[in-house]
Amino acid sequence: MSEDDLRRVAVAAADKEAAAFELDHADLTLKEAVIVALEHGTPPEVIAEVADLEPEDVIDLVHGAEEPALFTLDETLDQLDAAGTPEPAPITLPPSVRDAGLA
After folding, report:
1. Is 95 within a domain?
2. How high is the pLDDT of residue 51?
3. Per-residue pLDDT tens over the stretch 52-75
4. d(Cα 17, Cα 35) in Å, to the nearest integer?
5. What's the CA dihedral at 18, 23, 27, 28 to 10 degrees?
6. What percent of the chain shows pLDDT beyond 90?
7. Cα–Cα distance measured from residue 93 to residue 96, given in angstroms and rounded to the nearest whole number
8. What is the DSSP string of 6-30?
9. In a domain, 89, yes or no
10. Alpha carbon 74 to chain centroid distance?
């Protein structure tokens, strides 16, 4: 593979990453705009028509934009206690360490 081939691959990969970032940004911008429009009383059917989406997709956008519920530290510790503490896996040293007498 020549230096030009490698450069073309690197540029194509960078272009793909940039396009993925732009798509993620556009998705987030659309979600935010839909939420604001709904908060201002715009019916989902109107938003769907303007955004070329199905009304169900408008609702899905809103639900997908919500942050998942977070547990408090106490709730997390309670859940871990209820699940039981698993036994730690035994550590197996590589032969070179065992043979060197370092264990």
Report:
1. no
2. 94
3. 999 888 988 888 655 555 667 777
4. 27
5. 10
6. 43
7. 8
8. HHHHHHHHHHHHHHHHHHHHHHHHH
9. no
10. 25
